[in-house]
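User: Working on a comparison across species. This one is NADP-dependent oxidoreductase domain-containing protein from Armillaria novae-zelandiae. Can you predict its structure so I can line it up against the others?
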Amino acid sequence: MSSSIEYVRLGQSGLKVSKIILGCMTYGSPEWQKWVLGKDEGIAHIKAAYDAGINAFDTANVYSNGLSEIILGEAIKKYEFPRDKIVVLTKVYGVVGKEPDLNLFGDPKSDTVGYVNQHGLSRKHIFDSVKHSLKRLQLDYIDVLQCHRFDYDTPIAETMTALHDVVQAGYVRYIGMSSCHAYQFHAMQNYAIQNHLTPFISMQNHYNLIYREEEREMFPTLKMFGVGAIPWSPLGRGKLTRPFAKEGGTKRGETDKLLVRYSGIQSNEAIINRVEELAKKKGLSMAQLSIAWMLSKEGVTAPIVGTTSIENLKELIGDEG
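Assistant: Here's the predicted structure for NADP-dependent oxidoreductase domain-containing protein from Armillaria novae-zelandiae:
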């Protein structure tokens, strides 16, 4: 494992993560999403990231219905990554489907198709989900357990108490939040603090050069609480890695269903053109420039980067050999 990469504290906690976190949503089964890579490629990517100095790996129970966690766990075991050096982040909230192509994330029909009590942030689901994640990861504990979404149906008191209890039980070291509104984060964090429970140390939010809504409410909230941001989609699902007129580029760029969130926004073209211009001027790739911009923003601890190309991964982490 290289020591050239910088390690920083996650928020005001004592936990240190590499300035780039490897996103493992990319690894699992193409039956779940067409652009997802299989086991062998996934393990190779994880090894390349670790060798370059990345010590933090982000996954979720729902990614490829658990297979992403399995692949990460197998990579850790195969290459004997020292457990006291690496940081494993996973998530709880969504349904882990029994079929490889099932994707019920946020689907209100989950109860009616056999998944009652297997989603959300209830005490039962948090404990059950942690147990299953540990088994898939082949680990004794999770470094950072993140709530994948806000649960409108479960009382905040129940959720925050359960999160505190999985920490006290030794299954989890720290907790974090992901993809919610600032008022929701504020309410959850305040409840934990006021009731002497375990508070969040991180927020995994959607943030990049073409989506900056988080600057309005979320970033000031995180600063007030001393919580670190670890943004997902820092490259706008590939939009910030190539000229505006150039479509596709990778299998993910051609098939990712969530690309629609960036469609029809008039300012995108001007922003992407400016990124292209500055990247050429500075002798960087567009992806490198976009990541450098993000790392310059106050409150951002480390972006979560995922790619379907090992060459692109090495370029981003500065290990082009």
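For your comparison, note: The beta strands are 7-9, 16-18, 21-23, 56-58, 87-92, 142-147, 172-178, 200-204, 228-229, 304-305.

User: Helpful, thanks.
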